[in-house]
Predict the structure.
Amino acid sequence: MTVDGAQLWRLNQRLLSAVMGACAQELAELGLETKEFFVLAEVEASPYPAEIATALLLPKASVTVYVRNLVAKGFVRREIDDADLRRHRLVPTAEGVEARDRALAALATEYDRRLARITPQDRTELQRILQEMLAPPA
């Protein structure tokens, strides 16, 4: 049996969408739209809007809108970059960290609910496979 990479990609995308959809209400209760959550979750790893756009495959203009919303909600603040005073970097606020962590917990709970459908051995194998797929090429 041939495994179609595009089909696997679509199944993975559907799973992620289903998990996000199941958590949409909890995100809304935290004051986050789905894409705002992704931006907020990326801020510590990528503190500049252009880096966030690249990491999340989002248009820079969209990231600008999400960042403005997150700043207005008090989840993120802009700081002058000490290395380049012309640039602003993003820093999550305490409220932003709390919202991000609660949203991640909701996503983990929903994902765990779905993982419970497969055996512990299959979960271990899935983790191994995903790590192998993410590893740099040899």
Summary: Strands lie at 76-81, 84-92. The chain has a mean pLDDT of 93.
